[in-house]
Specification:
The complex is a heterodimer of chains A (106) and B (118). With 106 residues, chain A is mainly beta. Chain A is built from no helices and eleven strands. Chain B is built from no helices and eleven strands. The chains are: A mainly beta (106), B mainly beta (118).
Chain lengths: 106, 118
Amino acid sequence: DTVLTQSPALAVSPGERVSISCRASEGVNSYMHWYQQKPGQQPKLLIYKASNLASGVPARFSGSGSGTDFTLTIDPVEADDTATYFCQQSWNDPRTFGGGTKLELK
Amino acid sequence: EVQLVETGGGLVQPGRSLKLSCVASGFTFNNYWMSWTRQAPGKGLEWVASITNSGGSTYYPDSVKGRFTISRDNAQNTLYLQMNSLRSEDTATYYCTRDNSGYWFAYWGQGTLVTVSS
C-alpha cells in the first residue's frame, strides 16, 4: 500500500502562512486530495487532484505538488482553521490516507 | 444541499454481524459512486468499500475483503454496509461518503459509531 507521511502537529499564529506537507512512499501522479476535520465533526474536502479548490472552500486554501511531494497551504491562517488535515491518494490501489496534521493556533 | 445520514451503529460482540445504512438526499443518487470510510477512535482515516453508481461493481481493501459487503438501493437513495465476522479492530466511526468515481470523497455524513467488544 502507498504510505502517506504527514508531520503530526504544527502551531502557527493567526495571520501567518502555514504549509502542511504530505509525502507518498511511491508516485501518485496528481491524485492527492486534502481534507479538514474539526474536532467532533466529519472530514470535509478542501482540495482535489493536488491543486483544485473544492466548492465553497475559501481561497486562503491552496494545494501544490505532484509525484511524491505535496503541500497544503493556508494563507492567511484564521482561528477557525484549528483542525486536523489529512491527505489522501487515489492513484494506487487501495486508496490511502495520511496520519493527519493537527494545526493549532497560538 | 447534499445530506448523508448514517444509521445502524452500536455495540456488537466479536464474530457477530451488523448492517449500516445511509440515506442520501440533495443530489441524484444513482449518478454517483458511493463509499464507506472509517476512523478508529483518535486515529486516522481508512477507506472501507466503494460501489459504482449502478451497483454493478464493488471494491474493498484487503482488511475487510470477504467480511464486508457494500450495496445500494437506488430507488430508495440508500447505501448499505453489511459487516460480518466483526473484530475489535473494526471499532470505528463509519462515514458514508459520496465518491468522485473512485478518486476523492466529496461529501461525508456525520458518521455512526460501531464498537466491537465482548
